[in-house]
Each structure stands twice: as structure tokens, then as C-alpha cells.
Amino acid sequence: MVGEIKDYPCSYGTKEESIVGVVKACNLTVPEVYKDGEQMAELARAVKRTTNDGVVYLPFDHAVEAEALGAVVNYGSETVGPRTSGYICDKLEEILDLGTLDTKKGRPAQVLNACRILAEQGETVVLEVVGPITILNGLIDLRAVFKGMRKNPPAPHSASLKTRRPREQGE
User: Is the pLDDT of residue 165 over 80?
Assistant: First the structure.
């Protein structure tokens, strides 16, 4: 039997802890701060000052790539950050039917815009890109991934390829 799902604020590391208070202190609003490149850049600079860090980090959550592939995201609040809310696939093979991850629109484009803004202001930007298992976890229950791996060993490789940005000509 599945128990009740509860939301808990992430308390791993100082960066995650500091984001919560900084959103409020900067008069930024949720969910806009997670969707707008200019607000992301402002929050990243404020977090850097608050943590006395030497670099700025983006994005602030691990749901950007999954959302770009179709996951539904709960943007949280000033106390809990964004996370996926439910799965959109039941079987590993369904991942192959999703669109491609487009970095030129949606939140991926806004994260890259924030990176550009910060870089132009002389900031050293660390772009945190999640791996295929984290992305898949936002789209499908990982038990289905491991079940699919056992039944069809090439399936995970094919599904993980969906999480990669397609190469453009000249790259």
C-alpha cells in the first residue's frame, strides 16, 4: 500500500537552504522566479551574496529538463522549490513518444538566458545539468524504468537518448 505523499523542503547544502529566504528578501515571486530569465539571474546573484560563494548556480531545481519533455511541474512556494508532480509515462517505451528537449523555448531557454545575462555581467556561471536517470524520474516511476531494463535491455539507452539535446549542424 502506498502511503501519503508529503512535501518537505530540501535541506541538502547551503545553496538550497538559502534560496528559500532569498526569494522573499528580493521581493521575487513564485512561480515567475523559476520561469523568467531576468528574475533567475537576480536570484542567482542574491544567493551568491547570501552564501558568500564565488560562482552563481543555475537552475534552482532538477525539473527543467523533464518539464521540457512534457512533465507537469509544481512550482512550489517561497518555502519549497519546484518539482515534478506526477508521472506522464507508465512504461519505459512511452518515453520514446515524447517530443525532443528543445533548449530554445520554455524554461531551458530562460535558464540559458539567465546564464547569458550573468556571464555578460562578469559572473562565473555553473550550469547544473541533470543526468538521464534524474530526468526520467520526473517523467516515469523509476520502478517502471528498471522493469523495462530487465524486459528490454536496449530500451533504457533509447529512452536516455531522448534526454539529450539534438546536435545542430556545424556542432
Answer: no
